[in-house]
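Input for the complex:
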Amino acid sequence: MPLSSAQLIERLHACGEQIARAGSELAARGWTPATSGNFSMRIDEDTIAVTVSGRDKGSLSPKDVMAIGLDGHPVGTIDRPSAETDLHLQLYRRLPETGAVLHTHSPNQTVASRLFAKDGVIALHGWELQKALTGYTSHESRVDVPVFPNSQDMGDIGRNVAAWLDESRPLYAYLIEGHGLYTWGRDMPEARRHLEALEFLLACELDLKRLGGTS
Amino acid sequence: MPLSSAQLIERLHACGEQIARAGSELAARGWTPATSGNFSMRIDEDTIAVTVSGRDKGSLSPKDVMAIGLDGHPVGTIDRPSAETDLHLQLYRRLPETGAVLHTHSPNQTVASRLFAKDGVIALHGWELQKALTGYTSHESRVDVPVFPNSQDMGDIGRNVAAWLDESRPLYAYLIEGHGLYTWGRDMPEARRHLEALEFLLACELDLKRLGGTS
Amino acid sequence: MPLSSAQLIERLHACGEQIARAGSELAARGWTPATSGNFSMRIDEDTIAVTVSGRDKGSLSPKDVMAIGLDGHPVGTIDRPSAETDLHLQLYRRLPETGAVLHTHSPNQTVASRLFAKDGVIALHGWELQKALTGYTSHESRVDVPVFPNSQDMGDIGRNVAAWLDESRPLYAYLIEGHGLYTWGRDMPEARRHLEALEFLLACELDLKRLGGTS
Amino acid sequence: MPLSSAQLIERLHACGEQIARAGSELAARGWTPATSGNFSMRIDEDTIAVTVSGRDKGSLSPKDVMAIGLDGHPVGTIDRPSAETDLHLQLYRRLPETGAVLHTHSPNQTVASRLFAKDGVIALHGWELQKALTGYTSHESRVDVPVFPNSQDMGDIGRNVAAWLDESRPLYAYLIEGHGLYTWGRDMPEARRHLEALEFLLACELDLKRLGGTS
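Predicted:
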């Protein structure tokens, strides 16, 4: 049964508050420089809440978050969604358990995406913190984070994501070259735990490389 | 029509508040060590507001900001403007859309200015965040940030800036060797977005180099 | 004479408050990413207070800290202790002066543990701050921090710790490969001083290596 | 005319407040890890105020600061001064303009002291921020920061400082190998400006080296 308008507005506001709080904390870490980054949460089966285009992620309020259908149509607003909204929608459609998606832009994420672009993937293994990703129970497992080429056409990026998912390979996050990280979870706390763990793992992987170590 | 004295005083105060807030936030990031850096805003066609020489940029108040004509004459004050005021005035004269100029001195900016001094320019390309610079719409474009030699004579630096502008090459920011960054925008929010984006891009460029990657 | 229930509850609460404050300050430095890390304090000869499994270390309250006997049995609670509690208990049993144990997970600690894993030890010498470790009085001494292999079976790690202690070698801290640092002290302030000093020493050791220096 | 007891107590308290504020701000930057570092100010021609041994520099109050004569005798207290007080006293005796001395222990200072120990000096040139050191007016000048060997006997270090001063070479700061930085100024604001500038310059010098640049 679809939500009533009143229910939708209430849930949109609740999502907006969670997104604003996340934005404030992630911006303070320097992960959304110069208004970059965008965030979303699922409102119901067919609708998500997503940040409006171009807002400063460090000072979001619920009115900077709008509703959009999984089909891409804004719901009850004339605001324009973030330019990368299609990538959010794809994740909610293809991975129905997804409840929150975070796209950030830290220096470590961005540098790692350039450095590993030619490999197309960063293979993380041997780090205890891999266990912070839902489904992983040992540092001996291997976490593959794909690195897709950047494009100003979201369709190009989406096709690469789809190709990976079509092969039924597990996917918890991906990088776009020179651009940053997408990660997600069943709800906002899980998405944030995944983000915090991946930022840490990429930071360690890069630093080990700077020091001439092998992972 | 020129501003009345009362209007000038009011606008100077308003600029002073914006400059003080910017100073506090930029100093907290460590971008104005040991009283370095200076900031300005346009008051009207012929007059700008600029920080007084030698003040701690982390604890500015509007009384640390003075008015100066585009001709370099202080307006209604005996304060001495920042030693580098001529570089600010040049930008307001040559680029009439300019509404705010920020000069900072972060470790990344300063180190990049030394490292790329022999090339005379840092060519940024392949980074999504280039799009945070007004006028850029793709990571595939190329942003040239010139690196000019340092001098204790502002005229020497100004002549190099002028030569670049005379060739009608786009200019959004420049570095001075061993010294730091100048950037600007139509208003203070745009100038700050440019500064935040350039600091991020220089940080990424340096880190990629540390890691042996090629950009 | 064993503690009365009322005394135990009171002391558990007091330990909980110290642990929560430590957690808040260490999380703010980024040393417990994504709910990693765990902390404990001695309540009496046979009982310790330890963080409950899986809590965010940056927002602990005394109710996130439970009592457990040195024999490993929870005392007066159905909470589950941190998965690594056995490593805490081992330290309280083998080193009776121990009053507080801290396990953290900073990038420097984690990267150092990978880089020096093949040596099995990091030998610190020549740093004045070694004197912050109780018992050391000169930078000319040598502090050995062993690096043990990681395992999802705490028994494997514990056996390596025991083997080191059986040789009566001094032990103030150890690293687990890809995983982080354990350190301790007679009370929480000493444990925190040890942690702060070791984090500093590992950071310096790594940076000296990045710069091609020899220690 | 010597100070009366009441005047001495009042000035000691005023110095204690300035030292406590400096300690709080420098500790927050991570420059006094694990109770390291010590600070002093001149009370009058013959007496200085110095931090008591072993206190946490991030939470000093005026009662953590004691008076001591230039001859090394505590004045009106049974507290023990910082172990390195003799190095402070030497600076007040040999450089009579000195009003405040700061000894800190940042990672950059400590790593630089190890890396350049074999040269015995770090020669800074080409950095605009050298001008933040009183007496320097150009980036083209050269600032020599000597690096002296560490010793647990302050007399050994003091003899090296004296030998440098005996040659009438300018001295604004020195490093002790593996140990940290001493710098000073006519008053606390100047000493802090020197410290902030030197930390910045050492950070840039190290980073330029990491990047393979030459200074």
